[in-house]
Amino acid sequence: MSDPAAALTALLRAASIQDHDEVLKAANAAIKADKSNAHAHHTRLVALLKLDRFDDALRALSEAGDRLEKECAVEKAYALYKVGRLPEAEAAIGTVQPATRASRHLAAQIAYRAEKFDQAAPAYRQLAADVESEGLPGEENDLRINGLATNAQLQWKGQGDLVDEHLRQPAREDLEAFETAYNAACGCVARGDLAKASVLLKRSRDLCEASEDLSDAEKQAELLPLLIQHAYVLTRLGKPAEATSLHKSITLPDVPEPSAKVVAQNNQTALGSEDQNPYLTQRLIESASALSGNDQLFEYQAAVLRRNRYALGLQMQKFDGIESSTSKQILKAPTPTASTEIAGLGVINAAARAQLQAGKIAIKEILPILEKRPADIGLLLTIIQLYVQTKNPGPALGLLEAFLKRLEQATTPDHGDARFSPGLVAVTVALYRLFGRQNSIRTELAKAAAHWRTRSKESATSLLREAGVELLKSSNPDDLALAGDTFEGLAAKSKNDTIAAAGLVASFATTDYPKIEPYLSNLTPVERLTAGVDVQALVEAGVASVAAVAPESRKRPADVEPQKANKRRKKKRLPKDYVEGTEPDPERWLPLRDRSTYRPKGKKGKKRAQEATQGGVVKEEETLELVGGAGAVKVEKATGGGKKKNKKKK
Question: Where is the composition biased (Basic and acidic residues) (predicted)?
Fold first, then answer.
């Protein structure tokens, strides 16, 4: 019988890439003959990795002993990476000393898959810098593809400040291969430049279809992710017809990657779910293949799918379950947090609590939750939106100011980042502008600029620009100095930022001219800006005055009476005994008893008529003073006739 070890050695000399099964059989035979054969154990491990049997490779490695495990740290880390055990893979690759080029490649890939893009990006940059001296043929193109993918992920995660300025926009060499064009398009999607992303995706599809290095089956497999991404971009651009046409060309069972299949199923369902039964839609989404191992969604993708499932649950009126589930996730998260994922859960939780009602009814249901979760930014923004929709922004501003005051009293950095998050500052400024509180707007933006000026966060760049522009309108020297420092920091980050350069010049033009000289060449000359301006015509037209916007009163406006409709005039009705030409009685509008022709009947009536002022006897009265100064009373004056009558009786 031939020696198994010798047979294995002979097979390895003549092996090609298609011989992995034969190599595995020979290695197993050699191990069966001699379990201490380290070379056979190593060969079996490599063959299992080549056959994508990663779980079997880890079991074979543990059976081989600790010595082989230390020698094969790269192989172990790769197997752990492929089965999705990323923390263990990171620890294993860290034991490789000194680090080889293969271990550096694997470490960068593990960091990328673990969503530690801030570690993966410099690793790929260093590998690209050493490619001329240490690299293999074709490695430069692979590094460029991976670097573009990492830069896109950084921008998706809100860490675009870690990407060099010259790498944010697509370069000419990115348009030469379909992989680099696709990754450059993903970077445009992350920045919100959807129109350019659509052009790059079209370019990537054309390059893939025209490639001579791929077979028809390989082209089809590469085209499917491009079509899925392009359909998503067209949907975001407001072109649902074109997106639907692309989705129809995608056959879900043909999508090779399970994660891409899940995304495609979700996008197709979301695009045509307006008139669909939510129960059927849920079954369609759940029918997508389950994800396992290394083939998992990134966190921002998984968050979108979770929100979609919650939206379907709301349509199916599963209010109690959704409220309970979202509450648990919100309470687990650190508070307060400006995370879009947690804020979105706060909105869904409020919708479940209010049972999809709106207006004052929803506010009444949601307000008690804010007392239990006072740091829930998503819930707070939902209540503010409801108050604004009901045209009652006063309580909304009161709630927001109380929330901001609570955050300012905290001293941790996380509280500061949440307090001055760009979205929250934008809502505050919008409410202040609604009430005409310009000084409050300037104060809020000044605080935000002072907070973010020392931090390099990409999401705060637009906030710093707006804060600087607003501070330039102030006459306070401190505000102008803060505006200058803000624009100076922005100009240092990006030399092509014309807004920052203009703001810097406007801030220091009268106080520090040498500081603005390097930026003057980046601005358009004044002569070119005023070339088509007729100065004489402007002088003759006079100075235009802009009416100041009066602050909106908090009082309830008076109800405006509806305009009465024109009524048809009725024809005048005349009495039956009316004789044309005679004048009507002037006393016809008076009551009957007040007319001069009124004659009461009976003795009492005649007596009342005599006592009346019209033709009657006027009684004379006199005033008598009471004794002791107690006052005076009016009595009827005695007449002489009474005395004569008394005399006769005597």
Answer: 552-564, 575-597
Q: Is the dihedral of CA 327, 333, 334, 340 positive or negative?
A: negative
Judged against a pLDDT cut of 60, whether residue 148 lies above it is answered with yes
Task: Identify the three-state secondary structure at position 543.
Answer: coil
Alpha-carbon distance 138 to 85, whole Å?
Answer: 29
Q: What is the DSSP letter of 460?
A: G
What gap in Å lies between CA 489 and CA 504, rounded to an integer? Answer: 9
346-397 pLDDT per residue, tens: 899 999 999 888 888 999 989 988 888 888 888 999 999 999 999 988 999 9
Residues with Cβ < 8 Å from 449, sequence gap 6 or more?
463, 464, 467, 468, 471, 482, 483, 486
Contacts of residue 271, defined as CB under 8 A and 6 or more positions apart, other chains included, come to 231, 235, 240, 243, 244, 247
Whether 202 has a pLDDT exceeding 90, the answer reads yes
Q: Please write down the long-range contacts of 272-276, taking CB distance under 8 Å and 24 or more positions apart.
A: 272/244
Name which residue leads in pLDDT, 222 or 632.
222
The token pair that represents 66 in the structure block: 């600790």
Q: Which residue, 229, 235, 280, is CA-closest to 250? A: 229
pLDDT at residue 643 is higher than 50: no
pLDDT tens digit sequence for 305-339: 888 889 888 989 899 999 999 998 888 887 777 78
Tokens of 53: 């049997």
Read off the DSSP letter of residue 161: G
| pLDDT > 80? residue 554 | no
Structure tokens at 242: 């074109």
DSSP sequence for 211-248:
-SSS-HHHHHHHHHHHHHHHHHHHHHTT-HHHHHHHHH
Distance CA 186, CA 230 (A): 10
| Residue 604, token pair as written in the block | 């009492």
Kindly indicate the confidence band of residue 642, based on its pLDDT and cuts at 50, 70 and 90.
Answer: very low
CA pair distance 307, 313, nearest whole angstrom:
10
Question: What is the DSSP track for 166-200?
Answer: HHHSPPGGGGSSHHHHHHHHHHHHHHT-HHHHHHH
In angstroms, rounded to a whole number, what is the distance separating the alpha carbons of residues 113 and 115?
A: 5
CB 398 within 8 A of CB 384: no
Q: Which helix (H) or strand (E) holds 623?
A: strand 621-625
Q: What is each CA distance from 132 to 80, 103, 140, 150, 171, in whole angstroms?
A: 30, 18, 9, 21, 21
Contact (Cβ atoms closer than 8 angstroms) between residue 96 and residue 73: yes
Predicted pLDDT at 548: 58
Phi, psi torsion values for 123, nearest 5 degrees: -65, -45
Contact (Cβ atoms closer than 8 angstroms) between residue 143 and residue 128: yes
**Inter-residue long-range contacts of 94-101, CB under 8 Å, 24+ positions, other chains counted:** 95/70, 100/74, 101/127, 101/130, 101/134, 101/135
Average pLDDT, whole number, for the chain?
Answer: 80
Mean of pLDDT values over 488-500: 77
